[in-house]
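Subject: Sanity check before I submit

Could someone independently write out the structure tokens for this chain? I want to compare against mine line by line before I put it in a report. The sequence has 413 residues.
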Amino acid sequence: MPETETRTIRLNYEPINKTQADYVNSKATRVLFSGAFGAGKSVALCTKALKLSLDYPGNFGLICRKVRATLAQTTLKTFMELVCPGELIADYNKSEGLVTLTNKSQVLFGGLDDPLKLGSLNLGWCGIDEAIETNETDWKMLEGRLRLPGVLHQIFAATNPGPPAHYLYLMFFEAKRGEVFQASSLENPELPEDYKLRLGEFEGTYYQRYVLGRWVGMEGLVYSAFDERACLVSRFEIPKRWLIHTGHDFGVANPGALFYAQDPDTGNYYLFAEYLPGEGYGIYDHVQAFKRITTDLNVIKRVGGSHQEKEIREGYTAQGWPITEPKHSQDRKLQITKVQALHRLNKVFVFNDLREYMREKFSFAWDKSPDGQLLEKIQDEAKFHLMAAERYILSDFTPETIPEQGKIPVWKY
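---
Independent answer below. Compare away.
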């Protein structure tokens, strides 16, 4: 009898802490890795997927995000480059997002934006990356697909923390319907020192969630009416017919700008781009960047600066980017009130990959007195350049429509 050759394949994964290792090895039917930035969530999720595929030859599992288009440069890249050795891959169908391993197990990469395709799957396991983007209906639909015979059935997720009202918090932390593993950024010994220093500059809710890994709400924030569950959305291509509005802050060292697209059918605004370049750039450089961001889009309104910054506005106009003075430039409190009103109506949506905007939004807080009472003063307000750009442009809008059958709603400025 000929001898059978045995090959040893070394996996790329080495756990960076006990939390990551315990998550990968958990056999619970529902498992959540709740972690801050740099906590190793996606690597752990991909490793768990590979482990289930190797432990049960012929297994079939799904790794998904809310939108399929976001997988290629995120979770799929992590799986192929950091987790799964090439020797284990028998075939990769790029168009289908299907990886077939040498033991006949298959891993499908898909998005929840194609529910008809997912509804016909017979899965052994399902892994959801960035699960904070999903809702409870998504979770139940995926859980209902776990019906492949002869394997361990698991649904597992990795996510940044969110508000305590999110279904994941209610399911795992309050109802305790599954195992949950938590990690902060500080628990990853492999993070570069300069990255840790930048994380240390975060403040408020943003620091609590994305550095410490805590599920906290919007209490004490200036824009507490911003409903992140409804208004943080995955990126999509802005239709060419939508109208573009821009807000600008003229900080000498740290200028900032935000770019909103308005859907003419609903009147809703979508923040699709942010600009925060840092020092060393002049007006000409900023204008060239603005034009690149808005290529082939119809910019109809550019607003920015305080009442005293007329000369700076004229400088931008001379470079081909005319900026007008905000309507309520001498009443900051009114500007903030009008932005808050738009948030209460959920009229402003934000692409969830705009990290600098989210950092400012979740750190922009009222100051507190020594006894913990909120004051009518914003902590370190001068540091929040994107929040200034936001109130300059959004305070120009009044969320009123004139409904008329068969016509697009007219929005008053």
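---
OP: Matches mine. For the report I'm noting this point. The chain has a mean pLDDT of 88.
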